[in-house]
Design a protein that fits this description.
Blueprint lengths: L3 E11 L4 E7 L5 E8 H6 L5 E5 L4 E2 L3 H17 L7
Length: 87
């Protein structure tokens, strides 16, 4: 059985092709999970403040500045929202 990590939404990027990339990070900002959706799907689906992500689906964040920014954003998001709350 695989382990899961609680990850919090730290970034939502829109591109010119109508796609949105949701980035969820672990509390320390060292690992992320990215999900790409059509913008219409992102607005119609339930994007929550946090998700439980299988550890084997997480990517490492190499840049220290990015890790720090993600950790700060996780702290902010987790203080404002419940994990299953739409965001």
């Amino acid at each position: 059985m695989s382990e899961e990590s609680r990850c919090w939404l730290v970034e939502r990027d829109y591109d010119d092709k109508g796609l949105v990339t949701l980035t969820y990070a672990t509390a320390d900002g060292e690992h992320v999970y990215r999900r790409e959706l059509a913008a219409s799907a992102a607005t119609n689906s339930k994007v929550t403040a946090a998700k439980s992500i299988e550890k084997d689906q997480l990517e490492s964040v190499a840049d220290e500045e990015t890790r720090d920014r993600y950790a700060t954003e996780v702290e902010r998001t987790s203080e404002r929202y419940e994990p299953d709350e739409p965001i």
